[in-house]
Design a protein that fits this description.
The complex is a heterodimer of chains A (299) and B (183). Chain A is elongated. The relative contact order of chain A is 0.13. In chain A, the strands form three sheets. An eight-stranded mixed β-sheet of chain A has the order 2-1-5-6-7-8-4-3, sandwiched between helices. The longest helix of chain A has 20 residues. About 2% of the residues of chain A have low confidence. Helix content of chain A is 32%, strand content 21%. With 299 residues, chain A is of the alpha+beta class. Chain A has ten helices and twelve strands. In chain A, helix 6 packs antiparallel against helix 7, helix 6 packs across helix 8 and helix 8 runs parallel beside helix 10. Chain A folds into two domains: 179 residues, no CATH class; 103 residues, no CATH class. Chain B is α+β, with helices and mostly antiparallel strands. Chain B is built from six helices and six strands. Chain B starts with 7 loop residues before the first helix and ends in a 9-residue tail after the last strand. Chain B has one domain. Classes of the chains: A alpha+beta (299), B alpha+beta (183). Chains A and B meet through strand 1 of A and helix 3, strand 1 and strand 5 of B.
Chain lengths: 299, 183
């Protein structure tokens, strides 16, 4: 996409100051705009070069550095990013940047396309110290825009972690996305309610019993978030689930026609539902049981 | 955490320039008992010319650096009454004061300082006779911390949701006439 296709490119930061999240735009000149545009291009060059269609981001999955992922912007755990995207006029920074450079959580660029579309590209800073390269003192009085310099005082990163569109988010660096979206905390905050709601999708599992445990365990909450996004939950077989639990030594009991995992087996039970726990029986010994931190369906 | 409004010198110059009509009127009226006309007009000239020079420089550098923002102008309201308010509440009361002693002169200068201080804190530095003379109208943007847009448009049509504009200060933006903004 040519540089001229963008009507406007703006630059901003998010910082936590005195416990309060502050999002603000920072005036830039065209040299910074060009750099941000190049980061945008590098993002999509890398993103589109990865084989296959974008996969749905799952919080419970372990990802590599570069992935081709996507997630709907209206995901209930992405409120902060949704607010960032839909904030109509982000204020221009009133902060003294040299004092907050090391408190910046992330920086972002707002790309306004000439067709009216908007994208917000976000990056966790890796080289933000020494960001400010201002004009000389005299010029500073009437023009305080940042300038990109060719030495190593200030370097933008080579690409963005993720780019927010109107409906979806394209994710290239899942680690940065997870950190910036604070998705683990968001998932944990809503985990108990999300767990109870699963009862409507698998009636033979007592999710109400699990809700309290899940609300205090990040690992369990991430598994619930992943399970919730599955489209085949309603087709889960009670008999097959019980059989799989028994084969993997996951302790469960059946009460009032509902499966209840024992307290020390809750995580294992959720891992089975999330297709992460499996056994391999290739020797004369007992079957080996594994947990997949990352998995890919092949059939 | 220290914070500022960004470009504080420009903000001060804009405030001083908003007082330019008062300075000119004072120059015409004179302070015969306190200061001779020669020095008074030198002071008035500085107080009128230098602020406008800085504003011109600010707009020049804003254009040079392409210091532009895309403002959401879907919720704006015109501020037609500001000049009248400015005239009644600031200009005329200060102008009507008769200065015959050094003490009254110092009181007058102090009053101007207080007015500048209040206008500074209320972010009212957009009040500017020059912009009004040049045909710029003032629009308050509700969704942008009540920032101000200066534009020559007589109204902002409802089908225009966003306008690309130059930044003068962090709360005053201007849509320059004859500047070719991207579509």
């Amino acid at each position: 996409m040519p540089f001229e296709d963008f009507r406007s490119i703006e630059f901003g930061i998010c910082s936590i100051i005195d416990g309060q999240e502050i999002i603000a735009l920072i005036p830039i000149d065209d040299s910074v705009r060009q750099s941000l545009y190049e980061m945008h291009e590098t993002f999509y060059n890398t993103y589109l070069a990865i084989d296959g269609n974008p996969l749905l981001f799952e919080a419970s999955e372990k990802y590599g550095q570069d992935e081709k992922l996507t997630i709907p912007l209206n995901n209930q755990n992405l409120n902060s990013l949704n607010n960032l995207y839909n904030q109509p006029n982000i204020p221009v920074s009133n902060l003294v940047l040299s004092e907050i450079a090391n408190k910046i959580t992330y920086y972002f660029a707002v790309f306004h396309h000439i067709n009216g579309a908007k994208q917000i590209a976000v990056r966790r800073p890796s080289q933000f110290k020494g960001l400010l390269k201002k004009h000389n003192k005299l010029i500073q009085l009437v023009d305080d825009t940042l300038k990109v310099v060719v030495d190593d005082i200030f370097k933008l990163d080579i690409d963005f972690d993720f780019i927010i569109h109107e409906l979806v988010i394209d994710i290239l660096h899942p680690t940065g996305f997870t950190f910036i979206a604070n998705i683990e905390e968001e998932i944990l905050r809503t985990a108990a309610d999300a767990t109870r709601l699963l009862t409507t999708r698998i009636a033979f599992v007592n999710f109400n019993y699990l809700a309290n445990y899940v609300g205090h365990s990040k690992a369990a909450a991430k598994l619930i978030a992943s399970i919730k996004s599955r489209e085949d939950l309603e087709r889960t077989s009670m008999e097959k689930l019980i059989a799989k639990c028994q084969s993997l030594n996951v302790l469960i009991r059946v009460e009032n026609e509902q499966i209840v995992p024992e307290d020390n087996s809750v995580i294992h039970f959720l891992q089975i539902l999330d297709r992460r726990e499996y056994d391999v029986d290739l020797t004369d010994d007992n079957p080996e049981i594994f947990v997949a931190s990352s998995r890919k369906k092949i059939s | 955490m220290k914070s500022n409004e960004g470009l504080p010198l420009i903000k001060l110059m804009m405030l001083l320039s908003s007082m330019a009509p008062l300075f000119i009127l004072i120059g015409i009226k004179g302070f015969d008992h306190v200061i001779c006309d020669k020095y008074l007009w030198i002071a008035v000239s500085f107080l009128v010319v230098i602020p406008y020079l800085f504003i011109w420089l600010r707009i020049y550098f804003s254009k040079k650096s392409n210091d532009t923002f895309l403002l959401d102008v879907s919720e704006t309201k015109t501020n037609r009454e500001y000049l009248f308010t400015y005239l009644i509440t600031i200009l005329l009361p200060l102008f009507s004061v008769t200065i015959t002693t050094n003490r009254e002169f110092v009181a007058m200068i102090s009053a101007i300082f207080f007015v500048v201080f209040v206008l500074w804190n209320m972010n009212l530095h957009f009040i500017n006779i020059l912009f009004a003379i040049l045909g710029y109208r003032v629009y308050t943007i509700d969704s942008y911390n009540c920032s101000v847009l200066l534009t020559k448009r007589t109204r902002i049509p409802s089908n225009i949701k966003e306008l690309k504009v130059h930044r003068i200060s962090n709360s005053v933006f201007i849509e320059l006439k004859n500047y070719k903004y991207a579509i």
